[in-house]
Amino acid sequence: MPCSIKGWDRNQMAARAAQELEDGMYVNLGIGIPTLVANYVGDKDITLQSENGMLGMGPFPFAGEEDADLINAGKQTITELNRTSYFDSATSFGMIRGGKIAAAILGAMEVSENGDLANWMIPGKLVKGMGGAMDLVAGVGRVIVVMDHTNKHGDSKVLKNCTLPLTGKGVVDRIITNLGVFDVTEHGLSIVECADGVTPEEIIGATEATIV
Prior knowledge:
Blueprint: H1 10-18, E1 26-29, E2 47-50, E3 54-57, E4 80-86, H2 89-97, E5 103-106, E6 110-112, E7 117-118, H3 133-139, E8 142-146, E9 158-159, E10 174-176, E11 180-185, E12 188-194, H4 200-206
Parallel strand pairs: 1-2, 1-5, 5-8, 6-9, 8-10
Antiparallel strand pairs: 2-3, 3-4, 6-7, 10-11, 11-12
């Protein structure tokens, strides 16, 4: 049944995702909602990595202070820190494939109850390629997905099985949506936290995946 429950907005989802990060972590942020996480790191000693060749991303710039040469993987202007370093894409993906990145926070079009992730294409639509997502889900220590719980028609995007081409199979550890926080278990998804004003019963009603 289509769902119209609101829960968290995009910034609240990003702020909740930032709570997953711990001092000393190197973290990659995917495009979409995950890029907002940089604004909510606060005083934590987190180093954000962008696969286009930047280690040590700061928050988004204020209006009028943008530098067109400083962009993230989604081509959005960002800021640098006093410890920021720059390098080529080969070095960047060497970090990812070599297991140097502790976590990736990624967006998704669909995610399944067993942790399958689909976040790179919709058949029939023009796409430029999978990008770095394939390497990220295979190389980082922990994959956190941040996404809307339902599509624009109100249908669940948290599914028993993904219908779109997969980025990775069984790669997702935790899912954060506008309705709550979920862990992937061997028996289905476990509710870790409900979003403000959302009940477990409403989550179950809005979710195709198995909730345990």
